[in-house]
Specification:
Elements (H helix, E strand, L loop, with lengths): L7 E11 L1 H7 L1 H21 L9 E5 L2 E7 L5 H21 L3 E13 L4 E2 L1 H14 L4 E3 L1 H10 L8 E3 L5 E3 L7 H21 L4 H23 L1
Parallel strand pairs: 4-6
Antiparallel strand pairs: 1-3, 1-4, 2-3, 4-5, 7-8
Helix pairs in contact: 1-2, 2-3, 3-5, 6-7
């Protein structure tokens, strides 16, 4: 049989909006607008940074699942990795601003996407990273991708990844922000997350995830004040 369609090498992020089923059940239009607004704001912000070092990822959205992909072109490999990482960082920040939490995984490998379907090993691995490894409200990356991003980022340009207590690297959205705006935002996020912690005390599994995020926010606040 003729193989009309073929996969290409790509960087792929699989991102899940946490608690969306409950949000849809409680207020379907409010949750729709919150997610769409976060997505729209991310597109606007990303395009401000558009340059020869980045190109806008292809985006596929199904309900609360967001798949970002960028083809790896020979000689321009760094652009594909950096574009997906940077877009994911902006997206997570805008999700927080709109009172939404996300979890995700980023992988690379064979991938296919058109107007009808998405397919490939990179998607499967990114999906498994999100569902089986990430655990907390973080977007994690495969070790080889972390190595590439660490080599790309210059010390004076901030950072986009953090190494967690378990040795896993995850995206640091505050790596894209100036200190002044970042401190204002992190204070807002701490306040909002304090309410989440209080509301989740009856569910240990959820409480552990929210508590991880609160520790991250508090560490970022201390880091901003100390620098």
């Amino acid at each position: 049989m003729e193989q009309k369609y073929r996969t290409k090498s790509a960087v792929v992020a699989f991102i899940d909006v946490l608690g969306s089923s409950e949000a849809i059940k409680n207020n379907v239009n409010e949750s729709l607008n919150a997610i769409h607004t976060a997505y729209d704001e991310t597109i606007i912000e990303f395009r401000k940074f558009h340059s020869r070092f980045m190109n806008e990822p292809k985006i596929d959205i199904f309900s609360d699942n967001i798949i970002l992909s960028n083809e790896i072109v020979e000689g321009e490999e760094e652009r594909a990795f950096f574009s997906v990482i940077f877009f994911s960082a902006l997206l997570q920040m805008n999700m927080w601003v709109n009172d939404l939490l996300v979890r995700g995984g980023i992988s690379c490998g064979d991938f296919f996407s058109d107007d009808r379907m998405i397919w490939g090993n990179a998607l499967i691995r990114a999906y498994k990273l999100e569902g089986q490894i990430a655990i907390y409200p973080r977007i994690i990356v495969e070790p080889e991708i972390a190595d590439i991003i660490k080599l790309m980022m210059k010390p004076d340009k901030g950072r986009l990844l953090c190494e967690d207590f378990d040795g896993i690297y995850f995206i640091d959205p505050f790596g894209t922000n100036q200190k002044e705006s970042g401190l204002y935002l992190v204070d807002q996020f701490i306040d909002a997350n304090t309410i989440r912690l209080r509301n989740s005390q009856g569910n240990l599994k959820i409480y552990q995830k929210i508590n991880w995020l609160q520790q991250y926010f508090c560490e970022k606040r201390k880091e901003m004040i100390d620098t």
